[in-house]
Design brief:
322 residues, single chain, 2 domains, mainly beta, 6 helices, Jelly Rolls
Length: 322
């Protein structure tokens, strides 16, 4: 005779059992909410009356605590005026800032760490900060910055960062432009699906990412180019650095027999605008103009790369437009 051990009722009360067929993929409305396609226009810096931080918040659609732009990341516009400093703070392991307009500086009041050195920044610069480095941003002129961090991921896990996983890191506009120009001059690059430079931190040699959670890239779409579709399991939050008339991205869940996106949704580009591509969606950037354009995708692919779950796939290379 088998005697079952006594189990406190409080232990059994939260227990649930589901049929695998109804629970194996709960990404549907009412359960784990699907990540929507979404886009945002940049704020009008000239009409802003004061410094402010404007989150690109989809927490309502995602069914999570906000602000959150994706389940793992939160993106914001930071509007900064002279004489009105801001101290953007989040319980996050990684914060990435890109300067869309203006010039200014940052410091770390009250911090004596030898790595907490002041920094001057200008348009086109990018910097990444770890946990424990809380900046005060000041503007020399009206400025617009873009800020992405991983606080939504930590909220979901119910954790707080314990220590900095990397040191502060700065990429100047001159350095980024120089690397992109060298890439564009390389004749072998014409056969690539993407003309882009990946930004990495020396503390992440295995993943080659800008932090242990964040992935960032500065990409160029040449004039007249159509990028063949590609996809990955990380969420892409794309910031448009330079747009031209007609530039757009095609997004969809399937490819047709010729490797093109089946029944795509078109997302038109706007300089300073942002759009979100859900994981697993095929996407293709198209530039019908005669001038090259640029974008800055930021993803949670640092984490996916470490987990070996990124699963990036390409449908082909870079085609010219007829």
């Amino acid at each position: 005779m088998t005697i079952s051990p006594a189990v406190p009722q409080s232990w059994e009360s939260p227990a649930r059992i589901y049929d695998y067929r109804q629970a194996a993929n709960p990404i549907r409305p009412g359960l784990t909410e699907p990540i929507p396609l979404e886009q945002w226009s940049p704020p009008d810096l000239e009409s802003a009356l004061s410094s402010s931080i404007q989150p690109l918040d989809l927490s309502g659609a995602l069914g999570c605590e906000g602000p959150a732009t994706s389940p793992a990341l939160a993106a914001h516009y930071v509007l900064l005026h002279p004489g009105e400093p801001l101290c953007p703070q989040a319980v996050a392991t990684s914060s990435l800032f890109y300067v869309l307009k203006g010039a200014g500086g940052l410091s770390f009041p009250g911090q004596s760490d030898r790595l907490a050195q002041p920094l001057q920044w200008g348009q086109g610069d990018l910097f990444v900060l770890p946990h424990g480095f809380s900046p005060e941003l000041t503007a020399q002129e009206a400025s617009l910055l873009y800020w992405v961090h991983d606080a939504p991921l930590l909220r979901y896990l119910g954790v707080s960062p314990m220590a900095a996983r990397f040191s502060p890191c700065f990429f100047s506009r001159d350095r980024l432009d120089g690397e992109l120009n060298r890439l564009m001059a390389d004749p072998t690059a014409a056969r690539s699906n993407r003309l882009s430079v990946l930004l990495a931190h020396g503390a992440m040699p295995a993943t080659r990412t800008v932090s242990h959670t964040l992935w960032a890239m500065v990409g160029v779409v040449p004039g007249g180019a159509i990028q063949a579709p590609h996809r990955h399991q990380s969420v892409a939050i794309d910031l448009i650095l330079e747009a031209a008339p007609g530039c757009h991205t095609l997004v969809g869940t399937e490819l047709d027999g010729e490797g093109r996106i089946h029944r795509p949704k078109r997302i038109d580009w706007e300089t300073g605008g942002v759009f979100l591509t859900p994981p697993g969606y095929w996407h293709s950037h198209v530039n019908p103009s005669g001038e090259p354009v640029r974008l800055l995708p930021i993803q949670d692919a640092g984490l996916h790369t470490y987990l070996r779950s990124l699963d990036i796939r390409f449908a082909g290379g870079l085609a010219g437009q007829d």
